[in-house]
Design goal:
Layout lengths: L2 H5 L8 H31 L4 H18 L4 H22 L4 H14 L1 H24 L12 H17 L4
Amino acid sequence: MSWLAQTSFIRDGAHAGWLTHAAIELCRVALFCAAAIPIAFIDLRERRIPDALSLGGLLALAVWDAAAQPRAIPMEAAAAALGFALFWTLRLATRALGFGDVKYAALIGFFVGLRYWFVAIFVAALGALLYWVFAVYRLRRPPRERIAFAPFLTLGAIAACALRIAGQSL
């Protein structure tokens, strides 16, 4: 049992494990959102993702999980590495992603885990595609105009997190 679970004030009663898990998850969501929401707005405005938010969010989640659920760290690190590697490969192949998107994909992988990372990316890609179609055909934007991808990644991560917390197994 982790140090946080041992020292938690929610130890007695029939729902002790669930409440402790819920409190741990709520803190993880809050830490992620503290980085993800500013990332989305900064990327919309400036077309960049600050390292202080993407890498800082990753570090904050890692420290929290080291205290709250240390057994989860290896799988979360694997998901972060996979997210980084896949987005790095996409960046090299297409030049459509910035390096900030690559680091943000690692943060999302660490946050939602390996199975749900793919859900997050699917939702992000679908949202970006729908926005692009709307922007080109309705707003008459040029088809080659770049769009900020971090807001869609944030949307995808939140959707994947909601599915994970709701207990949907993939």
